[in-house]
Specification:
17 helices; D-amino Acid Aminotransferase, Chain A, domain 1; five-stranded parallel sheet; Dna Ligase, domain 1; binds ligand MV4; alpha+beta; 5 domains; 25% strand; Rossmann fold; 22 strands; eight-stranded antiparallel sheet; 501 residues
Length: 501
């Protein structure tokens, strides 16, 4: 039985994991770097161990230091969170060797899914639709041949890739050799593995993923989909469930394929099967993430399952206590990621001290964060500060609730993307559910330059009246606050800084 868990992570996810531990009567152990001495996860944990300098390569990514801290603390298990060591097969294997439970799938499952050429082959053998494409491409001559066969546009992808690294779009056959060369060298540089393959390019796709849970006894279920098409440079910004484009028939098919994908690698733990989906709802397996994802809370809310608790139960060897046929999607949930960054300066990270924070509260609102007043966001790590998750009975109400929550969210000291997120929630393409992975690029003017577009907002009367009102209040506030120099709302990059409700 797992009694003590070391969380090999930081920030909001470390705190999130520890919350479930506490509910389960499990002691939680934090590890922290130099820059994280005052971090929330250290304060929240029952115990904390210092593991070294600020750069993650010398702390959160250092296997020896983490294993050492686990031994010293007497932890029975390690939860890797997301990022860092979460999809590192060697680390999962090392935990096993050391007699520590790795809260995640087997090293073999991580390895198979981490290598895209292998996972494409395994999925094909399991009868799962994959994007038309090739196995490993060993020569430039073969690359040209295959590109002709598949038909341009095609994508050259690194087998070790994911998240856009080592990926090249080829619109014309004559560009294939250059693309192969540059994808190879980028992959060699980034992953130390320059294996590549070629896929048919799917135009204007949706990114839709399925949450799965598998236990160590061969039981596997899916917990429906998440629509993750609102992204910028392969960084997700907003996720929602159910997907506004999904139909019940396609949902059931894709759910069964997601379960089959997990079964093909004897998957145990929480995982995500990513599909790329075209305008006609043709769907293709893209990759499987063998970890808990940033956006897991929307699934938790709509399905009513604590995914971290399930991960721990599974790692304990317990049998899944959820049957597929008792699951349903109840209402609608949307998550948006709050970053310390400046959308107006090309989304440049904006680390610094949090001077003031008023977090949104109220019915149907969840805020998973880790910053507090006086806390300095370090520049060494991801600038994501928190995730705002709302639930409501319908999509329309969830959007209204997320707007309400965002409008009342105040942070000063660092620049944030809150106003940008508000604009996404005011953008007709999002409100109408008519968006794909090109959403941010297509609507960038609307999102960045609100004043030019206010007339386009759908529920014009209410929003326009509100914006007008809020703008007036804001002007008055600016005058008042900028004088004493203490609290200048311009700091927070927000136009609306006052809420009536
Ligand atoms: C694709 C694609 C179109 N066709 N593959 C981007 C990250 C990596 N996981 C796979 N990606 C894509 N692969 C084919 N054959 C378009 C993308 C893609 C994308 C996918 C999911 C979410 C956002 C995206 C943004 C740009 C491109």
């Amino acid at each position: 039985m797992i009694k003590k868990v070391l969380v090999a992570n930081r920030g909001e996810i470390a705190v999130r994991v520890m919350r479930s531990c506490r509910e389960m009567g499990i002691i939680s152990v934090a590890v922290y770097s130099e820059a994280d001495r005052r971090a929330m996860h250290v304060r929240y944990a029952d115990e904390a161990y210092f593991i070294g300098p600020s750069p993650s390569s010398e702390s959160y990514l250092n296997t020896d230091k983490i294993i050492h801290a686990a031994k010293k603390s007497g932890a029975d298990a390690i939860h890797p969170g997301y990022g860092f060591l979460s999809e590192n097969a060697a680390f999962a294997g090392r935990c096993l060797e050391e007699g520590i439970v790795f809260i995640g799938p087997s090293p073999e499952a991580i390895r198979s899914m981490g290598d895209k050429i292998t996972s494409r082959r395994l999925m094909t053998e399991a009868g799962i639709p994959v994007v038309p494409g090739t196995e490993k491409i060993n020569s430039e001559k073969l690359a040209l041949e295959k590109a002709r066969e598949i038909g341009c546009p095609v994508m050259v992808k690194a087998s070790a890739g994911g998240g856009g690294k080592g990926m090249r779009l080829v619109k014309n056959e004559k560009d294939i050799v250059g693309a192969v060369r540059s994808a190879r060298s980028e992959a060699r540089e980034a992953f130390g593995d320059d294996s590549i393959y070629i896929e048919k390019y799917i135009e204007s796709p949706h990114h839709i993923e399925f949450q799965v849970l598998g236990d160590q006894h061969g039981n596997i279920i899916h917990l429906f989909e998440r629509e993750c098409s609102v992204q910028r440079r392969h960084q997700k910004i907003v996720e929602e469930t159910p997907s506004p484009v999904m139909t019940q028939k396609v949902r059931e098919e894709m759910g069964s394929f997601a379960v089959a994908a997990a079964r093909a690698v004897n998957y145990a733990g929480a995982g995500t099967v990513e599909f790329i989906v075209d305008d006609h709802l043709n769907y293709y397996f893209l990759e499987m993430n063998t970890r808990l994802q940033v956006e897991h809370p929307i699934t938790e809310r709509v399905v009513g399952v604590d995914l971290v608790k399930q991960q721990i139960r599974i790692a304990n060897g317990e049998t899944l206590d959820i049957r597929q046929d008792e699951l349903l999607q109840f209402g609608h949930a949307i998550e948006c990621r709050i970053y310390a960054e400046d959308p107006e300066q090309n989304f440049m990270p904006s680390p610094g001290v949090i001077r003031h924070i008023t977090e949104p509260l109220g019915l149907g609102v969840r805020h998973d964060g880790y910053v507090y007043e006086g806390y300095e966001i370090p520049l060494f790590y991801d600038p994501m500060m928190s995730k705002l998750i709302v639930w409501a009975g319908t999509r329309k109400e969830a959007i209204a609730r997320l707007r309400r929550a965002l409008y009342s969210y105040k942070i000063t000291g660092v620049k944030t993307n809150i106003r940008f997120l508000e604009r996404i929630m005011e953008c007709p393409d999002f409100v109408n559910g008519q968006y794909n992975t090109h959403f941010v690029d297509k609507n960038i003017d609307f999102l960045l330059f609100p004043e030019k577009h206010d007339e386009k907002i759908e529920d014009v009367a209410i929003i326009a009246a509100f914006i007008d009102y809020a703008t007036k209040i804001k002007k008055r506030e600016d005058k008042i606050f900028s004088k004493n120099g203490k609290s200048n709302w311009k700091d927070c990059g927000r136009r609306i800084s006052f809420m009536r409700y």
